[in-house]
Amino acid sequence: MTPLTLTPIRDVPLIQPGDDLPALILEGLKKSSLDIEDGDIIVVTQKIVSKAEGRLVNLTQVQVSERAKKYAAICEKDPRFVELVLQESNEVLRCRPGTIIVEHRHGFVCANAGIDHSNVKGPWGNQEDWELLLPKDPDVSAEKIRAFIQAQTQKKIGVLIIDSHGRAWRIGTVGVCIGIAGFPAVVDMRGQSDMFGYKLRVTQVAAADELAAAASLIMGQATEHIPVVHVHGFPYPLRESHFPELVRPKDLDMFR
Amino acid sequence: MTPLTLTPIRDVPLIQPGDDLPALILEGLKKSSLDIEDGDIIVVTQKIVSKAEGRLVNLTQVQVSERAKKYAAICEKDPRFVELVLQESNEVLRCRPGTIIVEHRHGFVCANAGIDHSNVKGPWGNQEDWELLLPKDPDVSAEKIRAFIQAQTQKKIGVLIIDSHGRAWRIGTVGVCIGIAGFPAVVDMRGQSDMFGYKLRVTQVAAADELAAAASLIMGQATEHIPVVHVHGFPYPLRESHFPELVRPKDLDMFR
User: Fold this and answer.
1) What is the ipTM score, two decimals?
2) Burial class, B101, CB count within 10 angstroms (exposed 0-12 / middle 13-18 / buried 19+)
């Protein structure tokens, strides 16, 4: 078994709305001294995907609903920001002073609907007013990057789009998958036996989340200086995959 | 920035109660062709730590309490097994058919108090009756391994003991830290600014959990064939650390 190697790719320029992200990522990979091989995974932070897709919103342009005002009063956040959070969400799970946790319309549970302010620079006005929404459909974004790089390199790869989420019960954020193409989000161990022949109790491994956490560790939190990570040695066979595999159905979730 | 490289260490024998685990791990590391360097992290699956500590229990020796009978009826598990779960726990968070989720006495929330049956072989009787409890104090276990390897190699390293946990909201298990020595469990970003000078919203990164997930990805779930992973390129400075840094205080936890 080969080692798992995660290499930071720095040679990706600051991304602007409308940029051809797949091409810029491939250029960054080429500038590194890496070979892209069959089975490799390219991990991309959601932030540069969102920027390329022009997912910037200026708070001065937001119409605040009564519902947003109500939640904003509870979580003590800017009602315009809360309005954006609600527009991006299916449901509010918790709202307390300082915190609003939602089910994003993509299906995952996170704070602030993943809307971020750090490293965001808008085209006009007060920079404090610009917010960045998550990519419109991260699986589609991942598939576009995968298809382009595969076509250019003739290598069979996977693409993972990640964000950082807080968790129940534990302190700190970890990288998680929000979009995927070409490799398994979840690996099913059902039917496999252990060394002594017992059936395994643990049946599903969230492989894409484990890889997201690994990549997040070397991307860090502070900047876009490392927006892309190249992964060699992913231990499972590649296959088609979609983010919803990682979403626990609401009626089977005991912690909502 | 160097790549993050995780190398599986296979040359660790099947562990028996009373084995000198730190020595066997170092032997396994030496048999690989790796150099151990300052800043490297050694990741160890909880299972071999538990085995070396003799944490095997035979269900036929368990006295079942009324409380265990009550929970066993709800979750439809063996009352003797549920008794062990309760003895290992501070509190039951959820009990439903097929599932019992507890706060382990070590502070983390997990199913079955982390008690495992796969790859467990007891010294006598029906093998189905043997269960393996988590290590008695994983931080102490980690520190013993760290101290031994440091003394023998004169290199400053960290040690991480991991298990696989399910999560709220998301499908599948991921590797998590349950014991740590010599490197940061949580990295605090407070006060740091992004590229454009904004203070970061995300302030704490669960670095040890991210590394646990990475190592878990290459250890897999099925066997003890890869009980140890060597990590080179961990991106943060080493320091003393303890598992409880990762535990969200109960009164700040909105999902219990």
Assistant:
1) 0.95
2) buried
